[in-house]
Task: inverse folding
């Protein structure tokens, strides 16, 4: 059922006893392995192959591999805009989380897949979803110092809550200060209009975090 991609059949087989998900076929493959084999078509970016797997039943787009990733996650990570466009046309879910709480747009940020990132923002997808580390996509971009990805996000700042708090209520600007990512801080202030006077849950402003972490380059940005 996993290989065929019929979600209703798959649920009927496994929902009563999810330990069946560990059962292996003659080659030692579980249901997750079968889903992963389909997701490889998304990674490869061959649209014809991808369509042949999914067009008969677009609920197959919801199948997740062993890491909880769907075809949309894989396409986003590999910058396959053609696959993402097809998934959108099939009303696919771009807000589904993998096992780490990441959505496809998180994957686009993490893998620096800027074309995919821009496409997802243009739909737009939900940019406020936090992963298991309490990171929205803009937090992740800042922590990883994805400067160009952050610039892409700046073009769609109207769909991003730049003052959203993540772990401990820290905004993206707090993270730029903690990691001394001065160019990220500059972009957040000039392109997103991020407020330096937004306190986290511990009462610290971004400039306090810069001082605590000896982030001299970011401190200069704040003092300009």
Result:
């Amino acid at each position: 059922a996993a290989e065929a991609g019929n979600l209703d059949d798959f649920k009927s087989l496994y929902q009563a006893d999810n330990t069946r998900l560990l059962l292996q076929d003659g080659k030692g493959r579980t249901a997750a392995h079968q889903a992963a084999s389909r997701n490889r078509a998304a990674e490869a970016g061959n649209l014809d192959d991808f369509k042949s797997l999914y067009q008969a039943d677009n609920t197959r787009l919801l199948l997740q591999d062993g890491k909880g990733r769907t075809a949309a996650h894989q396409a986003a990570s590999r910058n396959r805009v053609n696959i993402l466009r097809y998934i959108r046309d099939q009303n696919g879910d771009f807000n589904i989380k993998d096992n780490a709480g990441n959505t496809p747009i998180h994957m686009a940020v993490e893998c620096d897949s800027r074309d995919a990132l821009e496409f997802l923002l243009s739909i737009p997808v939900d940019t406020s979803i936090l992963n298991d580390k309490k990171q929205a996509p803009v937090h992740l971009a800042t922590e990883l110092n994805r400067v160009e990805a952050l610039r892409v996000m700046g073009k769609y700042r109207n769909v991003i809550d730049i003052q959203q708090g993540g772990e401990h209520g820290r905004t993206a600007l707090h993270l730029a200060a903690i990691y001394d990512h001065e160019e990220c801080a500059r972009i957040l202030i000039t392109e997103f209009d991020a407020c330096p006077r937004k306190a986290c849950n511990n009462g610290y402003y971004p400039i306090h975090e810069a001082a605590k972490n000896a982030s001299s380059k970011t401190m200069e940005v704040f003092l300009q």
About this structure: The domain at 26-126 is CATH 1.25.40.20 (Serine Threonine Protein Phosphatase 5, Tetratricopeptide repeat).
